[in-house]
Design a protein that fits this description.
- By secondary structure, the protein is mainly α.
- It has four helices and no strands.
- It has a domain of 70 residues.
- The longest helix is centred in the N-terminal third of the chain and has 30 residues.
- The chain starts with a helix and ends in a 9-residue tail after the last helix.
């Protein structure tokens, strides 16, 4: 990138600008998804506060996923390497999230 080589902006300004540009997408898509999933699964639709709590959790997970994606993308210069290493970063999240817990 020509702008990066000539030092026109810092890493913080690039990260902040990229985050601001992606913010509407990080809010709109999880909102649409949570609206469909919440009522399609018949999750206690009589109280709006519970839906808002569900939506807040979905938005936090979306921001977290975006952050992890940016972290992995910034660690490696080659996209193929980043894609192949990403499961090693995400594996511990799956292992310790409780999905694999023994319910017996």
């Amino acid at each position: 990138m020509k702008e990066e080589n000539t030092k026109l902006y810092s890493v913080f300004s690039y990260f902040f600008g990229k985050s601001i540009v992606e913010l509407p997408y990080s809010i709109i898509y999880p909102t649409i998804l949570s609206a469909m999933v919440y009522w399609a699964c018949n999750l206690n639709y009589d109280e709006v506060s519970r839906y808002l709590y569900f939506l807040a959790i979905m938005l936090i997970m979306s921001f977290n996923g975006d952050g992890i994606g940016m972290l992995i993308g910034s660690l490696f210069s080659d996209p193929k390497t980043a894609i192949s290493v990403a499961p090693m970063f995400l594996g511990p999240f799956v292992f310790f999230s409780g999905f694999l817990a023994n319910n017996a």
